[in-house]
Amino acid sequence: MIGVSDTVEETARGGEFEEEFDAFYARTYPWLAARAVMLSGNRQNAEDAVQEAYIEAMRRWPEVRAYASPEAWVTTTMRRKLSKDGRRWWFRWKPVEMAETTVPAAPTATVEETAEALAALRALGTLPPRQRQVVVMHSLEGMSYRAISAELGISVGSVGSNLNKARARLSLMLDVSPELGRPTERLLTRTPEDPLTAVLYGAAEWLSDGFRGDARSGFRSDAARNGGPDGIRERR
Predict the structure, then answer these.
(1) In the chain, which residue ranges form alpha helices assigned H by DSSP?
(2) What is the mean pLDDT of residues 54-72?
(3) Is residue 25 part of a domain?
(4) Across the chain, what does the average pLDDT equal?
(5) Which of 1, 62, 110, 147 is deepest in the core (most CB within 10 A)?
(6) Dist CA 98 CA 89 (whole Å)
(7) Which portions of this protein are annotated as coiled-coil regions (predicted)?
(8) CB 53 within 8 A of CB 25
(9) Closest CA to 29 of 63, 65, 53
């Protein structure tokens, strides 16, 4: 028989988990949303995938919070949702024009920083979906060829081929030295020496700053705006 003390304890623990999850969301949302936009090239699809990933994490929070990296779990869930949804529109793919009006502009960025970030996002938008996936996963998330291969279900050789093509095009469009930007299996740090990776990190930081306001509003208010915690906004 469940006593009053058990009920009180469960309620208190539930409140503790709720506060913990809200803090996790506020801390991780800006960077996760930025990566989703860069992976998908579409803000609507990116925000839907991020929202679904956090809803799944919230429902399983007692389990997810015990993982070595809850953020890695949410990130992987987001990428898988984007990849699954993307299979429906990849055959209709065409270059994407990402402009300041379609992504959340960083309120504290200089004009030069905004121009550089938008140039990187526009260059990413010209890449075919697989190339964009691989270069973001390797350069921004520091994933090895083998890890990317396992998650995307493609060969290690295909990962390298797509990465080389993506880097060659981005290096040309963004005027960074391909000699200094050769891809490696090294896990990249948050202070990358590779100039192309540095450019992509700059764009991601710019996007993160733009998404930071949404994170401060809290997960539940954001979910309510997008259709409630049990569902996301209807796709357009």
Answers:
(1) 4-40, 43-59, 61-64, 70-86, 111-125, 129-139, 145-152, 156-174, 195-216, 219-225
(2) 95
(3) yes
(4) 79
(5) 147
(6) 18
(7) none
(8) no
(9) 53
Q: Of the given ranges (10-14, 70-74, 131-135), which has the lowest mean pLDDT?
A: 10-14
Residue at 42 is within a domain: yes
CB 82 within 8 A of CB 36: yes
Region of 228 (left: φ > 0; alpha: ψ -120 to 50; beta: rest) is left
Class of residue 72 by CB neighbours under 10 A (exposed 0-12, middle 13-18, buried 19+) = exposed
Q: How confident is the model at residue 4 (pLDDT cuts 50, 70, 90)?
A: very low
- Give the amino acid at 183: P
Whole-angstrom distance, CA of residue 75 vs CA of residue 79 = 6
Do residues 43 and 37 lie in contact, with contact meaning Cβ atoms separated by under 8 Å?
A: yes
This prediction's pTM: 0.78
In a domain, 233, yes or no: no
Is residue 234 assigned to a domain?
no
Residue 29 CA to residue 58 CA, distance in Å, equals: 13
Integer CA distances (angstroms), 7 to 2, 10, 60, in order? 7, 5, 20
**Do residues 163 and 138 make contact, with C-beta atoms less than 8 angstroms apart?**
yes
In total, how many domains does the chain have? 1
Q: pLDDT at position 208, please?
A: 93
User: Which single residue is written with the structure tokens 């960025």?
Assistant: 109
Instruction: Residue 204: name the closest of 142, 146, 131, 117 by CA.
Output: 117
